[in-house]
C-alpha cells in the first residue's frame, strides 16, 4: 500500500521493481483458511479503510466484538451466510519486497474443481490444518492436487495453535505426517509453520507464545521463497494470438505476429519454426510497447517480425528450431472435470491449447483417480464433476503440446463443449503420478468426428 507521504510515481516505480508471486490457499472446512487470508491482508496493511469498516459493521450485526477477518475474502452472500468458502476469491496486494496474487480456494470436497482452478497457476500453495484435528482426508486431497498441478512450493500452516496451548509436540507430529505424505507425492519443497490466524501468531508478526519455533512467519516466507514465474530457462514458446497488418502509408509492408511469450527467451536472429505447418524462418525484429528490441522473455507480450513471408495465423506456435515440442494428434493426459455434465468415452469436444482450438474425441477414459489414497479406479466410463482421471484424446489437427511436467503453460489445455462453449475439463498433458490402464478401443464415430 502507498503511504500518505510517498508520491504515487515513486510507489509505482517501487512496485515495478518487485517480483510477483502467485499463491493459493487451501484447507478443510473450519480450518480457518479465510481467517488466515484476512489476517494476512489486515496485518500487512493491504486492506482499504472502507473495506475494513464494512467488515466491522457486518461483524457487529452478528454480535461479534472484533472484526471477522474471514469476511475480507468470503465475498459471496451464500459464503457469508454459511460461513464457508465457495468461489475462488482473488486478492491482489503488495509489500515493499514483493507483489502477490492470492487465490483463496474452497475446502469442501464438492468444490475440488475450484481448488484446481485457483492452484493451476500458483507457484506456492498454503495448506491449512487445524492443530486439534491434524492431517485429515481433505488435507491429503489438497496435497495430492498440489502435487498433480506441479506446484513447486507447499506451506503447511498448522492453525489454531492457541487452542492446543501452543504445544510444540502437536505441531511436530502434524508436520512430520504431512511432510512424509507430500514428499511421497513428489512435492519438491514443504515448509511447516505453526500459526494462530485468529490471534495473528506467526502470520505477519512472530509469535511471543512459540519461542520454540525459529522459522519464518507466513509473510516472511512468501516474501523470500524463490519465484518460479520467470520461465526464461525453459525452451521458448510463442503462441500467436493476432496477426498485425496495418497496410498504412507509414507501414505498407508491416506483418507482425502478436502474442505473449509463454516461456523462454527470444532474440533477433533466432532460427524458428512455425507449428503445426513446420515452416522455418528467422526472427527479423521484436516490437515491445511500440519500440524495437533485440531480446524478449516470458511473460512479455510482444510482436514478432519474421524474415520470410510465410503463412502464420492465430493458433500457430513459434518455437526455436533446435527446441521444438512434439506435435501429435493423440493426447494422453490427466484431467480434472469441472462441469456438472459428465465427460464420457466417445464424446466430441473442442480442445483449446494456448491460442489454438481444434476438434477432438475422447477415445478412452482408462482410470479415475481416488485422491484419498491415490488408488486408480479402472475404466470408469465417465468422469463427473470434481473427478480427476486419465484420458486419451484424438484431435483433428496436430498439436504442439509440451508435457505438463516440463511446462505448466504449454502442457495444459481445456476441453470445451462444442454445442454451447461450456468448459468441461482442465487437462495436463503427459504423466501425473499415476499410469493409465488399458481399455477397449472406441468404435468409429458415425458423424465425421473419427480422427
SS element count, helices? 8
Euclidean distance between termini CA atoms: 54 Å
Rg (C-alpha, Å): 24 Å
Low-confidence stretches: 76-86, 434-451
Instruction: Describe the global form.
Output: globular
Helix content: 10-25%
- Derived from helix and strand composition plus strand pairing, the structural class reads alpha+beta
What share of the residues does DSSP label as strand, in percent? 25-35%
Largest beta-sheet details: 8 strands, antiparallel
Tally the beta strands. 25
Mean of residue pLDDT values: 84
Question: Care to describe what's here?
Answer:
The strands form 5 sheets. Strands 7, 8, 9, 11, 12, 13, 15 and 16 form an 8-stranded antiparallel sheet that branches. Strands 2-3-1-4-5-6 form a 6-stranded mixed sheet, with helices on both faces. The chain has 451 residues and is an alpha+beta fold. It has helices spanning 8-16, 33-43, 49-61, 77-82, 112-119, 137-148, 168-184, 218-224, and strands at 19-27, 89-94, 98-104, 124-130, 153-159, 190-194, 238-239, 242-244, 256-260, 265-267, 271-275, 279-288, 291-293, 295-297, 301-306, 317-320, 327-337, 343-344, 348-353, 356-370, 375-378, 382-383, 388-400, 412-416, 423-429. It has 8 helices and 25 strands. The model is unreliable at 76-86 and 434-451 (pLDDT under 50). 18% of the residues lie in helices and 33% in strands.
